[in-house]
Amino acid sequence: MARSKKVVSKKPAGRSEYTVVCRDVRKEYELGTQKVHALRGVSLEIERGEYISIMGPSGSGKSTLFNMIGGLDHPSGGKVFIDEVDIAQLDPYELAWLRCRKIGYIFQTFNLIPVMTALENVTLPMIFAGLTPDDYLPKGAKVLKTVGLGDRLHHKPTELSGGQQQRVAIARSLANDPAIVLADEPTGNLDLKTGREIINLLRVLNKKKGVTVISATHDLKMIDVSDRIFWIRDGAIAKVEERGKLKLSVGAIGE
Amino acid sequence: MARAARSPSRRGVMLKIPSLRRSAPTYGGPERRAHQRYALTLRGRGTFLSVPTRWLHEKEAFEVVSEDVSLGGMQVHFNEPVRPGDAVRLKFSVPKRGAVKLDTVVRWVRRSPGSRLGDTSAGLAFEDDVPRRDIEALLHASDHVAGGEAPGTGGVQAVTRQVNLPLRRAIEISIRSLRIRTTRTLATSAVVMFAIWFLTLMLCSKPIQAALEIGEVITKESQAQDLWVVIVSMLVAVVGITNTLHMSVAERYREIGTMKCLGALDWFVVELFLLESLALGAIGSIAGALFGMLHSLYPWLTRAKELAHVGLPLRAILINFAIGVAAGLLLTIIGSLYPAFRAARMAPAEAMRTEV
What we know:
- The structure holds two protein chains of two kinds.
- Chain A is an alpha/beta fold.
- In chain A, 29% of the residues lie in helices and 27% in strands.
- Chain A has a domain at 51-63 and 89-243: 3-Layer(aba) Sandwich (Rossmann fold), CATH 3.40.50.300.
- In chain A, helix 3 packs across helix 4, helix 3 (118-128) runs parallel beside helix 5 and helix 4 packs across helix 5.
- Chain A starts with 17 loop residues before the first strand and ends in a 13-residue tail after the last strand.
- The model of chain A is unreliable at 1-15 (pLDDT under 50).
- Chain B is of the alpha+beta class.
- Chain B is 49% helix and 16% strand.
- Chain B has helices spanning 51-57, 132-140, 167-180, 182-212, 220-250, 253-261, 266-302, 314-345, 348-353, and strands at residues 21-23, 37-39, 42-48, 62-70, 73-78, 87-94, 98-111, 120-126.
- Chain B has a six-stranded antiparallel β-barrel.
- Chain B is elongated.
- At the A-B interface, helix 2 and helix 3 of A face helix 3, helix 6 and helix 9 of B.
């Protein structure tokens, strides 16, 4: 099959500031005889180094949009560009490279491999990237220390609490120094305090390492740390807010 | 170096690329290239096409860096053993064009151990059938080189290090997986073992009965009956093994989806499950076939003294033993590879949300 050349988004040559661009992305599912429109023509641009939250109620399509941006699923229409390359036209090798080295993923259900220890989970993407044990063992230990689990390298996921498992997942997503971290409901299965810690961790990563963080969530605590928020409803972007323009007042539980 | 005549379309044509710095050969000797050299840094992948080295490096692409390109060829640096005359295919990923593949021939080789670019330098000449526009695309790609080594940079630096799973790591991961999931491993092996035990027993019984002249007169009906018994035992094996293996893989769909998110290629996943099922299948099949064989020899062993003069149909028994082992291995592999392959080919999001 002749492969058409990659379509590049229409930006001037040279370094573009947009690391993720979606153009009219659509996704439909067949549910029996009915068609479910999960995404109806979503277009957005995300700059390098931004912290983006995609917020919306359940069923609004934010997880679907997350899957599109992360290359985890194919859109029914429209295009997704990551650094000016249309990901639908990548061959499996390049797609694997993208997922291995350029993007790190964090899921609501942690998705750690239960038979592997924390260190082994974190170093698995490093193995895929071609590192030898001499390289990946110290690097894995270091990144686990960054997320605060330096003393639990050899614990299995079943021996860790939810917050700790999510930290391992975050460490794993950072294994190969990606440019983009995608998080799907990172605090969904966590309690308030742990959730706050995780959000803080992501924010520190964003600021210190310049990693672009894109998070699909309905946790309102994320509003505080995001540069921009895309509100999504019924498969379309309803509103885009910038943090500077938001008025936030935070309530507190009386003590 | 006397170069064979280049194709007329390229001879003596000047390529003007003002943005690139022109360069001179780095080794201080007389210019050996027919065309102007340009200095730009390209990173890409190479694979060997020559028959002898190809079998060594078939699956592996190696990293290639070039800082010196012209219409006729390029000087590259890598860490591979090459000899003049080897054919190397280079692949660079260029924005606005996609993948550019160039077939080249090695003209000269020099070792430079300790160099940051790679311990071997080689001069590669483009084959005559490489389209000129592909080479020009590389040279013009310098317009798009953002110059950064930062991840996520566009430009010609595309696939710098391969996504790979060395066999040793794969074996480690598979063995660890089997050892940790002890109960599941034992249960699955047990299914294989019992099924193959039954099959081997049925297969071996026939030659032994024939040798002992046990049983009634052999009629067409009893022969058909025996055949059917063997067929049924085979069906038990097929259904039992493939079903069990299928289930044990399908319950790990989410794990497969996760691995794909970490950058696993389809064949990594298939390889991991293949190794696991080979180990499982080997243990189960060999044990099962062994027990089946001994079981079928039981009447012989109990009456060893009186049967000492009758020849043991050893060859037939061993053949049936081998058939039992082979059947077990084959069925284990088929039963586990089909779901693994299916899951690996799915989009990760689908694999992760599949409920079994």
